[in-house]
């Protein structure tokens, strides 16, 4: 199966890169595997373009005229907390600057110089988790040797639903699904609060901390999982490459309800 058949239909990517030659190379390469790419050569043009239409991912150079990548990311996050943002950064970018980028809401960095194949793989892998096919409804994940079923709110041994080994609450189901759907991605705490609780306040934050502790106990069934807290930034579910993490979906029809 080629890479074009593996991506969702027509994902749209906003590329902000002031190097016109590199930008056109990246644009044509990603378009060759089925993505729609809009290339802007400065941060201000990219911001105006972002406000005109919906995008599935942003690739932002850090050093750009009129508005740099960090400034652009800050404005994007003021309007949209969920769209994935990756910075295209120089290898010499300081760790402190990268931490600032994560605090602004970045999902990762792609370090220059990068190969086009590496870029394809990073984009494809990330969109696989953040842009699932709209013809399917996610109802569970197989994680290693266990199945987490969000509809039944139970944990089963892999490939068997004859006897469950644990149960979880609706709120725990939402959190488990959210993290399992975004492995190895930093998720800001305020994003979780707004997405799952609908508000970002002290009471909601304390409530979430309690539930985070509960799902950590659920995840201990697979000891190679690590739900990491990144100080002043957010959380990340670290999943090793050799650990099976597979979606369970059912077709969506008019009678299917979330």
Describe, in plain words, how this protein is organized in 3D.
It holds the Pfam family Response_reg. Residues 134-239 bind DNA. Keywords: DNA-binding, Phosphoprotein, Two-component regulatory system. With 258 residues, this protein is an alpha/beta fold. The chain has two domains: 3-130, Response regulator (Rossmann fold); 136-251, Arc Repressor Mutant, subunit A. It is built from nine helices and 13 strands. It has a five-stranded parallel β-sheet, with helices on both faces. Strand 3 (57-61), helix 4 (69-79) and strand 4 form a beta-alpha-beta unit. Helix 3 packs parallel to helix 4 and helix 7 crosses helix 9 (202-219). The radius of gyration is 19 Å and the shape is globular. The two termini are 31 Å apart. Mean pLDDT is 82; it is low at 1-8 and 254-258.
Question: Could you provide a short overview of the structure?
Answer:
Residues 134-239 bind DNA. By secondary structure, the protein is an alpha/beta fold.
Give me some keywords for this one.
Arc Repressor Mutant, subunit A, disordered N terminus, alpha/beta, five-stranded parallel sheet, 9 helices, disordered C terminus
CATH class of the largest domain equals: Alpha Beta
For CATH, the homologous superfamily of the largest domain is named as: Response regulator
Low-confidence stretches: 1-8, 254-258
**Radius of gyration, rounded?**
19 Å
Strand order, sheet with most strands: 2-1-3-4-5
Shape: globular
Proportion in helices: 25-40%
Domain module tally: 2
Query: Could you please say which CATH topology of the largest domain applies here?
Result: Rossmann fold
Helix/strand order, N-terminal first: HEHEHEHEHEHEEEEHEHHEEE
Mean pLDDT: 82
- Please, how many helices? 9
CATH architecture of the largest domain: 3-Layer(aba) Sandwich
Structural class: alpha/beta
Assembly level: single chain
Q: Report the sheet with the most strands, covering strand number, pairing sense and barrel closure.
A: 5 strands, parallel
